Automatic annotation (TrEMBL):
Substrate binds at residues 140, 219-220, 227, 251, 312-314. This is N-acetylglucosamine-6-phosphate deacetylase. SUPFAM superfamilies: Composite domain of metallo-dependent hydrolases, Metallo-dependent hydrolases. One of its GO terms (molecular function) is metal ion binding. The active site is at 275 (proton donor/acceptor). Coiled coil: none annotated. Keywords: Carbohydrate metabolism, Hydrolase, Metal-binding. It comes from Rhizobium mongolense USDA 1844.
Length: 384
């Protein structure tokens, strides 16, 4: 039986460009076409009062939401709570992210993701941010749990990728060899360098061996100097390397982000991540992270999250807010800001059918007002 929905009344952004005075036709949870509003087929009509209809947002780095951190309880139930917490802000697909933790917690997160990706509740894979990070760039992670990649880890990651589908692992260049990178990449694992104090040469060797991206560019990594480009310089200069950025007004100065947007080799290789913690979608003002209190400090574009010593501990930003930030402070057009939250992260994660509204794509949708506020989100054409 054909179930058809027809969305009218809003500008449609298909991931590449806008369509004015058109209708989006969705059939059985998939995009059928974008057509003229004249002579529409039969189906349930959803009339939108202006604004923009876009593919739902894709977030590759979400530590928590809805009052829950994945590290608190690495289970499928936690992943659903996190996804639900972000859906009201337009995110229809995300990777729950486990920050550096014990081997048992990592194993539990992998098992949970195997189940969560089989449902249609917004969990598109798993991101493991640690434990293979560099203590010198630990950020809010626990340095005592960090260690190099071993052969048993390589085998475990490959098994996990085969079961989950989309597995993103953030590693420091210092903690993984070029040979290990090549083996993991050839097995379909998406490797990102992050929390690393490496040289540009070490980073470039791993980029060429199969590392696909860099985790939260500028944060927790070796910076760019005029004779020592560091990880930042290597990431901006390497044409095939993707870079996630946190656009919340706290993690990176807007002048620096504007510079990176102008300088990055490789068109469309910068994309938004939230790096969100549990307070997004929650009314709480603090939470516990590995036994330490993280508190919300109000002020600026959005609140920031800090440990007692002032260290930033993830973000308090949602994806719709990053788009507003991009348009307001980063000189981005609305179209490019939307791509950085939809098309580009989907391409980075190799999520076919996500991040665009081409025929056959998933009907994961978000409706935004002209002020870039979310009014509704759909997953597979169903209100979510």
């Amino acid at each position: 039986m054909i179930a058809r929905k027809i969305f009218t009344g809003a500008r449609i952004f298909d991931g590449e460009r806008f369509h004015d005075e058109k209708a989006l036709i969705v059939t059985n949870g998939r995009v059928e076409a974008i057509v003229s509003c004249n002579g529409l087929p039969e189906g349930e009509t959803i009339s939108l009062a202006g604004g923009v209809l876009s593919a739902g947002f894709v977030d590759a780095q979400v530590n928590g939401g809805g009052g829950r951190m994945l590290n608190d309880e690495p289970s499928a139930a936690s992943m659903y709570i996190i996804a639900d917490g972000h859906r009201r802000f337009g995110t229809s697909a995300l990777l729950p992210t486990l920050i550096t933790d014990t081997a048992d917690a990592t194993a539990a997160a992998i098992e949970a993701a195997k189940d969560a990706v089989k449902t249609n509740r917004g969990v598109a894979g798993l991101h493991l941010e640690g434990p293979h990070l560099a203590p010198a760039r630990k950020g809010a992670h626990l340095a005592e749990l960090m260690r190099p990649v071993e052969d048993k880890d390589v085998k475990a990651f490959i098994r996990a990728r085969e079961a989950i589908g989309t597995l993103l692992v953030t590693m420091a260049a210092e903690q993984v060899t070029v040979a290990q990178v090549r083996e993991l990449s050839e097995a379909g694992i998406i490797i990102s360098i992050g929390h690393s104090d490496c040289s540009s040469e070490a980073a470039e060797e791993r980029f060429d061996a199969g590392v696909r991206g860099v985790t939260h560019l500028f944060n927790a990594m070796s910076q760019m100097g005029h004779r020592a480009p560091g990880l930042v310089g290597a990431a901006i200069d390497h044409p095939s390397t993707w870079c996630g950025i946190i656009a919340d007004g706290h993690h990176v100065d807007p002048k620096v982000l504007r510079t990176a947007l102008r300088a990055k080799r490789g068109q469309g290789k910068l994309f938004f991540v939230t790096d969100a913690m549990s307070l997004v979608g929650s009314e709480k003002d603090s939470f516990m992270l590995n036994g330490r209190t993280v508190r919300r400090e109000k002020g600026g574009f959005c609140s920031k999250l800090v440990l007692s010593d002032g260290t930033l501990a993830g973000s308090d930003v949602d994806m719709a807010s990053t788009i507003r930030y991009g348009v307001t402070y980063l000189d981005l057009t609305l179209a490019e800001a939307l791509r950085m939250a939809t098309l580009y992260p989907a391409r980075f994660l190799r999520l076919d059918g996500y991040g665009h509204l081409s025929p056959g794509a998933r009907a994961d949708l978000v409706h935004l007002t002209d002020a870039i506020e979310v009014t509704a989100t759909w997953i597979d054409g169903e209100a979510a």
